[in-house]
Design goal:
This protein is mainly alpha-helical and 956 residues long. The protein contains 43 helices and 13 strands. α1 packs across α3, α5 crosses α6 and α40 packs parallel to α42.
């Protein structure tokens, strides 16, 4: 197949037949894949370029659907899925724009006008693009065309004339680069080549040379990458920054296990992945960054690390790519393009000598060139040249940044600073303390906090000191450093940071109020976009020893961080600002102190508990009284949640371990807001499910789900739906259970981690199997596998394989089930819940029983039972008991099989009679005549005891 974009979109098959690709979205996806034909394009890059505006809530799911539709328009096998992205299976010669670009690059490298003519022959008309989001492609192609025409013109003038050698075709710009990338093709190729042969690569160069831009551009070209911004990090915060970046890229699900450290969570996240981790701006934390890079490399053989720094990390095996000034041709091209952007036209013929002199004096540093070109809005090139007198005397001392070289770069910005009004200077310094930039919607509030007009930010955009992109005002790195340095020199740094913390606290409180209802998605997006701003504000409060201010800000982060599963960050911040001696005199203090007490009941791994039952009880009473005095939808949760934690502290092994419950008085329920009541009903449903009280599970899950749907809270809807679907399934209302599960999966898209979403989708597969709709279950299982392969995490893949195993067991194909289960390897994986391992072994045992390999099944079931009992997850224990019943049935021990089934029913609270394996076991034991699919009423019998010795005896 061939694809043409010059002169309009045209796709033809190998036999010359036209191929129709309808719809702008499909056409945009085809173009983006074609630009990198034959190589993987990451899902993030595809989504950002396909949906420049109005991006879908769940870009990954929307992209999967769009890829499916594009595959339907193209010949089979042309669009393939790869870990982390998709690939168009064509060569670059099959796409006219890439063939054109390659010919121009070859022509420039060889100074060959014939190849330039061959390239221009492909230009049959203006390049077609689906929307303005591909303007960077048009600019790059126009730049290449200019190079090709220049080569031909030079050859026509004289056969002895030479043309300057330049770097390869410019790479596409990315969001973090902020401006179109010019040149650097050789350096990009060098970085990619080093990463193919070395696991640690450092890009070395001065400030403003474009290290970050090239690192992110490189990361975009690989299937799976994570970018960690270390510029805002202080000493001791490197692992926090890495864990935060990994957590946003790879969501880890909540589990019953106690949260691990940042290092453990990163280890769990990257395990089994082929991933490039970018550590950006290491120079101010070089030792910590070096230690972190070494630890990352030791986590998994698939991890590669790309760092940017002004000095080497000093690790054995470290490979380098030196990033010096731009080559003269590219530097002049960059200056000319920015001059055209600033004043609407390229430098005139009589200005070219001055332009070359300016570029030379700026030493080819991209940032300096950009700032100088921006002044052509109001100054002539001659005036700019004169303004640089005595400012860059030391720029010829080599590519590395020295103190003098930094001072010279500062002098360039000083000169821009001298042209700013008083308001613009305040706005620039204020912008400097916002590491994430400032949202356009927040600009007015930020401006008011610093007593300037919001229009000052737009003025700084005009002066190229700020960039407005994706509805945010952002700063180039060196300009931000300059602003911070100005603040330090003026002695105003602390004042500005404290003002930023105050306004961020106010903005966060307003957004947090929308996280419990239909505004949740938009509110979470705001918290994600301002993550570095908010953590920096917390750090400012801590450094100022202002716990009250820190508590006010942290209060607004508690729920967003809980939804985003940032347990480590929450635990660390609470430890910083909680003060058991402080007066419980306002709502934020009550919430933070309650979270601190709750966390103390469940210490981090390897840490002893810091609270006794007696001290916990006393503090709980104080907090309950304070919560009643400071009422809110969150403080209304304080008494029941702290009581819940206390029941866990009191519980022991065996039957006592299943007695945790949500204790709420009628008065508390009546006084609680609707959202709080919905949460309490959902927690009661979870308690009922684990205790086998099906009557309570029915009542509480129905109330919780109805309330959350009325409120319009998508997270709450997903939370409540799982327990509701469980009851409906056990009650035999399988069609209703399926409808609830499907609605739940749609509700949590983009909120929960991929493994969590797949778990809900797997619940739907299980319901379909109970309905006997095997073919539909297979289709959904394949979709789960596709999503898991795209995500690439161990958890996602394990969920997909276990779902597929369920399908094969239901189909009676033990060989296929065992083969799929064998793809799951949890050995050595940190943080894998015991119930996950128990479920996996139960699936393996069922497959072995279908194959008649009874002895192997018994060994597997012993392992599964031990993990299940240890997890105290009673639905999982019931699932293992069902498999144990199967083993007893096939070995002729019908009485023991019936006992195992009875115990599974008692532990679960109802007989899961529609489970395909339950049907298989019942057929071999004669069990089931006395059983009913109607849920039991919470009757506790000895059969419900989870006693390890008693249950293990079922395998003797």
């Amino acid at each position: 197949m061939r694809v043409r974009f010059f002169g309009g979109l045209a796709v033809t098959s190998d036999d010359g037949e036209a191929v129709v690709v309808p719809g702008r979205a499909r056409q945009a996806l085809l173009l983006r894949l074609a630009i990198d034909a034959g190589t993987t394009v990451g899902t993030r890059a595809l989504a950002e370029d396909v949906w420049v505006r109005d991006a879908p809530d769940d870009p990954r799911a929307a992209l999967q659907s769009l890829v499916s539709r594009l595959r339907g328009s193209l010949p089979a096998g042309l669009v393939t899925s790869t870990p982390g992205g998709y690939r168009l299976e064509l060569t670059r010669d099959d796409v006219d724009v890439t063939r054109f670009a390659d010919l121009v690059a070859e022509a420039r490298a060889a100074n060959d006008p014939e190849r330039a003519r061959a390239a221009l022959a492909l230009w049959t008309g203006d390049v077609w693009t689906p929307h303005e989001g591909f303007d960077w492609l048009v600019r790059d192609l126009l730049e290449d065309r200019a190079h090709a025409e220049g080569l031909i013109a030079a050859a026509a003038k004289t056969s002895t004339a030479s043309t300057p050698t330049a770097s390869a075709q410019a790479a596409s710009p990315v969001g973090a680069a902020l401006t179109a990338l010019v040149g650097r093709g050789d350096e990009l190729d060098a970085i990619r080549e080093r990463l193919r042969t070395d696991r640690l690569v450092t890009v070395i160069g001065p400030g403003g040379a474009g290290k970050t831009t090239l690192a992110i551009e490189t990361a975009r070209a690989v299937a799976d990458s994570i970018v960690v911004e270390l510029a805002p990090a202080a000493a001791g915060d490197v692992w926090t920054a890495i864990a935060g970046a990994v957590g946003r890229r790879i969501r880890l699900p909540e589990t019953a296990a106690t949260p691990a450290s940042p290092l453990d969570r990163v280890t769990e996240a990257v395990a089994g992945r082929d991933v490039v981790i970018v550590l950006d701006n290491c120079e101010h934390l070089v030792r910590e960054a070096a230690e972190a890079a070494l630890a990352l490399l030791r986590m998994s053989p698939g991890v590669r690390v790309l760092t940017t720094s002004r000095e080497p990390l000093g690790i054995p095996g470290e490979a380098f790519v030196d990033l010096g000034p731009l080559p003269p041709t590219d530097a002049r091209m960059l200056f000319a393009q920015r001059v055209r952007s600033a004043r609407g036209r390229l430098p005139d013929d009589d200005e070219r000598a001055t332009a070359e002199r300016i570029v030379q004096r700026l030493d080819g540093l991209p940032l300096a060139i950009e700032l100088a070109a921006a002044r052509t809005r109001t100054l002539t090139l001659a005036e700019i040249d004169a303004g640089l007198d005595d400012r860059f005397a030391l720029l010829s001392h080599g590519p590395r940044l020295s103190v003098e070289r930094h001072r010279t770069l500062r002098a360039l910005i000083d000169w821009s600073w001298d042209t700013l009004s008083a308001g613009e200077r305040i706005a620039l310094q204020a912008s400097a303390v916002f590491a994430d930039g400032i949202g356009a919607g927040d600009a007015a509030a930020v401006a008011a906090a610093f007593e300037v007009d919001a229009e000052e930010f737009d003025a700084l955009v005009d002066r190229s000191l700020l960039v407005r992109r994706d509805a945010r005002f952002r700063m180039l790195e060196t300009v931000r450093e300059y602003g911070l340095d100005r603040l330090r020199t003026d002695g105003a740094a602390e004042t500005y940071r404290l003002r930023a913390a105050v306004v961020l606290t106010e903005l966060a409180a307003a957004r947090e109020a929308r996280t419990r209802g239909p505004g949740l998605r938009d509110a979470l997006a705001w918290f994600d976009e301002n993550d570095e701003n908010l953590t920096a504000a917390l750090r400012v409060c801590a450094e100022a020893h202002d716990r009250r201010a820190g508590v006010r800000l942290l209060r607004s982060l508690v729920w967003p961080w809980a939804v985003r599963e940032r347990t480590d960050d929450l635990r660390r911040a609470v430890a910083e600002f909680a003060d058991p001696t402080a007066a419980l005199d306002d709502e934020p203090r009550v919430v933070v102190e309650a979270v601190a007490l709750f966390a103390a009941a469940f210490p981090a791994p390897g840490r002893p508990s810091t609270v006794t039952l007696e001290s916990y009880t006393a503090r709980r009473a104080e907090l309950e009284q304070a919560a009643h005095r400071n009422r809110s939808d969150v403080t209304a949760l304080v008494p029941p949640l702290l009581r819940l934690a206390q029941t866990v502290l009191r519980s022991g092994a065996g039957d006592a371990a299943r007695t945790w419950h949500v204790d709420v008085t009628d008065e508390e329920f009546a006084a609680a807001p609707a959202w709080t009541r919905a949460i309490l009903h959902a927690l009661r449903a979870g308690s009922a499910q684990n205790s086998g009280d099906m009557t309570a599970l029915d009542r509480e899950s129905e109330r919780a789900l109805a309330m959350f749907e009325t409120i319009g809270d998508p997270w709450g809807t997903g939370f409540a739906s799982q327990s509701r679907a469980e009851w409906l399934s056990l009650a035999g209302r399988l069609d209703d259970a399926l409808a609830v599960t499907d609605r739940s999966a749609a509700a949590v898209q983009g909120l929960s981690s991929v493994p969590d979403v797949l778990q809900q989708q797997s619940q739907a597969v299980g319901i379909l199997l109970r309905l006997g709709r095997l073919d539909e279950a297979r289709v959904r299982a394949r979709a789960i596998d596709d999503a898991a392969q795209a995500d690439g995490s161990v958890r996602s893949l394990a969920q997909a394989y276990m779902t597929a195993a369920q399908v094969e067991v239901a189909a009676g194909d033990g060989e296929a089930a065992l083969r799929v289960v064998g793809l799951v390897d949890l050995r050595g994986q940190p943080g894998i819940p015991e119930q996950f391992s128990a479920w996996l072994d139960a699936q393996r045992a069922q497959a072995l029983l279908l194959l008649g390999r009874d002895d192997e099944a018994r060994v597997t079931l012993r392992t599964a039972l031990s993990a299940a009992i240890s997890s105290q997850d009673h639905p999982i224990i019931a699932s293992v008991l069902l498999a144990i019943a199967g083993w007893n049935a096939v070995t002729g021990r019908s009485a023991r099989a019936r006992e195992a089934l009875a115990r599974a029913t008692a532990v679960r609270g109802a007989a899961d009679v529609h489970d395909p394996f339950h049907v298989w076991v019942s057929a071999r034991t004669g069990a089931g005549a006395e059983e009913t699919s109607a849920p039991a009423g919470g009757i506790r019998t000895a059969l419900s005891d989870v006693d390890a010795e008693t249950l293990t005896a079922l395998l003797d």
